[in-house]
Design brief:
Largest sheet: 7 strands, antiparallel
Shape: globular
Helix content: 25-40%
CATH topology of the largest domain: Hnrnp arginine n-methyltransferase1
CATH architecture of the largest domain: Distorted Sandwich
Length: about 325
């Protein structure tokens, strides 16, 4: 599954992004730390690139934090109009404080990168796919505490085996379970990925059970101290056993924004958030579920790194009848 941004229209998740107070506060805090660190370490106010700017919220945070100028880039024409209006109403002047473009100019160079292209990471939006070409335009500092200034700075993808007993058992007829499996087309031997955001499943309020401990399957480090702009490390092979028809693979992630400020889309994080914020996080950054094929016997999933993306290979283990 891959993500292709639209060039027109207003997606409903934009409202969820704006209403996610926890996420917005953490991005604001991270940008304050980032811009402040840059001014202290480099001695001037940075020119920031907001890549995938959406409604302009992170551009607003960067300017409030003291950025000299922000170039906000988004391929969606309607969203760019909202960002322009939002920033002007906040008192910022286009051309003096910010610019809004549909693409990054080929010869531009920026001091700081900020990007909210997180989503469900490697299994959907594939943030690394969009960040890799930006290396040419993000300034590298050879003599500094850090070679790059990036928000976020680290992304970690996790996988586990979970069950949601309330979601299925509350329906004695099994209708919800059958509808869920039908929508995921689990008739063959593949593992089907589906976003809880797209299905509208009420996971943000569901009781869950971890059948198999969470394991780390991928790490993306953006602007690391080793001087590499983007470094990816993926698990060579991790087996997760599926032993019951209600077992699902659950893909979660955490993002370190800057200097320890983190945003998470995990089951534990959902449980800790206020109900309103919980709903926003589930709508905007839904978890990814992997639905194994139906059939008797155990089923294993092996994760292998290939072409910068985690691939899933199903492995069926038949159990002899007794």
């Amino acid at each position: 599954m891959s993500w292709h941004p639209s060039t027109r229209g207003l997606s409903s998740y934009i409202l969820s992004v704006l209403a996610d107070e926890d996420r917005n506060h953490k991005f604001e805090l991270a940008l304050r730390y980032c811009v402040s660190s840059f001014r202290t370490e480099q001695g001037y106010r940075p020119h920031v690139l907001d890549f995938g700017c959406g409604a302009g919220l992170l551009t607003h945070h960067a300017l409030k934090a003291g950025a000299a100028f922000v170039t906000a880039v988004d391929c969606n024409e309607d969203v760019r109009s909202i960002a322009r209006l939002t920033l002007e109403r906040a008192g910022f002047v286009e051309g003096t404080h910010f610019a809004i473009l549909d693409r990054v100019p080929p010869d531009a160079v920026y001091d700081v990168l900020v990007s909210d292209i997180l989503g469900t990471l490697t299994t959907s939006e594939r943030a690394c796919q969009f960040w890799t070409p930006l290396e040419r335009c993000i300034k590298k500092f050879d003599f500094a505490p850090r070679p790059y200034y990036c928000v976020p700075s680290k992304l970690v993808q996790w996988a586990s085996v979970v069950r949601f007993p309330e979601m299925f058992n509350a329906d004695p007829s099994g209708g919800m379970k059958h509808a869920f499996r039908a929508s995921c087309r689990p008739q063959d031997e593949r593992v089907h990925l589906v976003s809880t955001q797209e299905l509208g499943l009420p996971l943000c309020s569901s009781v869950y059970q971890r059948v198999h401990p969470r394991v780390q399957i991928r790490v993306d480090v953006l602007g690391g101290r080793d001087g590499t702009f983007l470094h990816t490390a993926a698990a060579k092979s991790v087996d997760l056993p599926i032993e019951h028809e209600d077992d699902l693979l659950c893909f979660e992630w955490t993002a370190t924004l800057f200097d320890g400020v983190t945003v998470q889309t995990t089951l534990e994080e959902y449980a800790s958030l206020p109900p309103g914020v919980r709903a926003c996080r589930a709508t905007r950054w839904g978890l990814m579920l992997g639905v194994p094929p139906l059939g008797s016997g155990r089923f294993g999933v092996a994760f292998r790194a290939k072409d910068g993306m985690v691939r899933m290979t199903p492995k069926r283990h038949r159990v002899a009848a007794t």
